[in-house]
Specification:
alpha+beta; Alpha-Beta Plaits; four-stranded antiparallel β-sheet; 4 strands; rod-shaped; Transposase_22
Length: about 230
């Protein structure tokens, strides 16, 4: 072979070798591109799934925000209502306190007035009065006060103390006279007999069993209290 032929043959072999090398490079590049595309597709699918999850979470968050806003509004309304109720209740309580104080004063006044016509009769042993306490006390008061008529009594009863034992001081009578002037008359009679501790014991018509009890109708230091 001549030198030209050898050179041409070498060039041809080099060309074939270069073409083969380029083909291999292209195939490698295509393979890499396919792998990259597959990875990108996989990652894109994962990203899409995450985006869907985020959207769902955002929707849930929006619902929670809406519910929270409603609860906040309800709480504000309840707070406003409770404030109004508290103010109204405070006003009502103050009014009721004022009314209670006024009623208490009236009750005390009425209680005091109801006791103005009360007298206390002490020293009469239990069982002496019989069944009709009011008539018994009226008779005693008539005798000890030297009255022409039997005084009118609204009620008569012994005090609520425990029943005394034998030898103990008997429970006094609480008597309410119907007319206030009768109490005045009893008080005047007591003052006239104030020199003695036991008053009205000089009444000639008073039964002796009453006189021996120790006795009737004194105020504070005696047996008759008005």
């Amino acid at each position: 072979m001549t030198s030209r032929q050898q050179k041409a043959s070498a060039n041809s072999a080099a060309s074939k070798k270069g073409a083969s090398s380029r083909t291999d490079s292209v195939e490698k590049i295509m393979t890499a591109i396919e792998l990259l595309g597959t990875k990108m597709y996989t990652q894109t699918a994962a990203l899409r799934q995450e985006i869907v999850s985020i959207r769902q979470e955002l929707q849930t968050t929006s619902s929670l925000q809406s519910a929270n806003a409603q609860n906040t509004k309800r709480n504000d309304d309840l707070e406003q209502s409770s404030t109004e109720w508290s103010m109204a209740l405070e006003t009502t309580v103050k009014r009721l306190q004022s009314e209670v104080c006024s009623l208490s004063e009236k009750c005390l006044d009425l209680e005091g007035r109801s006791r103005r016509q009360n007298i206390r009769l002490i020293g009469i042993a239990g069982g002496e009065e019989g069944r009709d306490l009011r008539q018994f006390c009226a008779t005693v008061l008539k005798e000890v006060s030297d009255l022409e008529d039997t005084p009118r009594l609204d009620r008569s009863h012994r005090t609520l103390a425990p029943k005394p034992k034998e030898g103990e001081r008997p429970r006094p009578f609480i008597i309410r006279v119907h007319h206030g002037d009768m109490k005045t008359a009893f008080s005047a009679r007591r003052r006239r007999c104030s020199t003695r501790r036991s008053v009205f014991t000089s009444s000639p018509t008073l039964p002796q069993k009453w006189l021996s009890s120790g006795r009737l109708l004194r105020r504070e230091s005696g047996s008759f209290k008005t």
